[in-house]
Amino acid sequence: MVQAKSNTPNTILVTRFSAVGDIAMTIPLLYSLAAAYPDKRFIFVSRERFGRFLVNAPENLIFEGVNLDDYKGIAGLYRLKQRLMKHNPDAIADLHNVLRTKVLRLFLRLSGVKCASQEKGRAEKRELTSPANKNKKQLKSTFERYREVFVKLGLDFTPDFVSLFGSDKGDLSTLAGAVPPKGDDKWIGIAPFARHGGKIYPLERLEKVVEALSKVERVKIFCFGNGKEEEAVVNDWCSKYPSVQSFVGKSDFSGELTLISNLELMLSMDSANMHIASLVNTPVISVWGATSPLAGFLGWRQKEEDCVQLPLECRPCSIFGNKPCRYGDFRCMHIEPQAVVDKILKKLGKA
Asked: Per the confidence metrics, is the pTM higher than 0.90?
């Protein structure tokens, strides 16, 4: 553990308001930081719904849930600053660094609060995703960018997070009726969906992966998703392949964490589920299309060797996967299903 200097802050506000994957990426840093400095208080300020991520949180890590609709505009952010001052903060670590948090930082600085913010590396990311003359180098991970914010405040530390469940897994008895007894089966999770099209492996190809895995002995597949459309896709697979089971709408977030922690492996896109699995120490095979691990968003302790991607010159074309394909066919996702299957079976020791 790195000992704090005498002039380091005692109560630190930490801001990050979106998105789900980015929120998940704060957890290994916040838990490690709180454990390294048990005499400090860390107030994580985020949208109310993200409080669900703080499972088994250290006692000195406190969640401050905010409904941003109540704090619109300059006047609203000033009121939010006034609300946050009740914690008597010495510093703010801004892990978001967008207009909203910049204004909030300004108000806090004028009240004598020390401020530090994330350096996002926007220029490097533009070079990485440029249509021509790409600079394809590995950029600093988001975890390191977050860590550097705290170092600026004098809080150096080495992240050592393992899981939201510590050295254990979630209690499957809490999911009785929703999942079968585990026994000796290998459990695989599949999260087929992502927010942006450039991150989604075509469903017709993914179904071939599901079909192949369903034929492997003593393998059970759980599919994750949200909403009626995603549920319809998953239910269609369940009707075709007996070893496939839907977990869409079967439990709350806590139940999802419990199930994911008991999987041998999660197959995910470059999406929130990739990060959520890493929070419960579950190995992940991830599929990448328009985006790339080079941008620094690979999940906690995940390895590039577990990524499935094509060596195309046009990749990556987007940091978030939200740009249209210039060729109109998302050829970056024309990955052979067998390549995904082989990667999974090798990870499971069944190759």
From this structure: yes
Which of 245, 244, 256 shows the shortest CA–CA distance to 210? 244
**CA distance linking residue 97 with residue 118, whole number of Å:** 6
Q: What are the distances in angstroms from CA 77 to CA 85, 104, 141? A: 12, 6, 30
The domains of the chain, with CATH numbers, are 11-152 (3.40.50.2000), 172-348 (3.40.50.2000)
Answer yes or no: are the C-beta atoms of 117 and 87 closer than 8 Å: no
Cβ–Cβ < 8 Å for 325, 301:
no
Residue 251 class from Cβ within 10 Å (0-12 exposed, 13-18 middle, 19+ buried)? middle
Residue matched to tokens 């009740």: 86
For the stretch 124-160, pLDDT in tens is 999 999 999 899 999 999 999 999 999 999 999 999 9
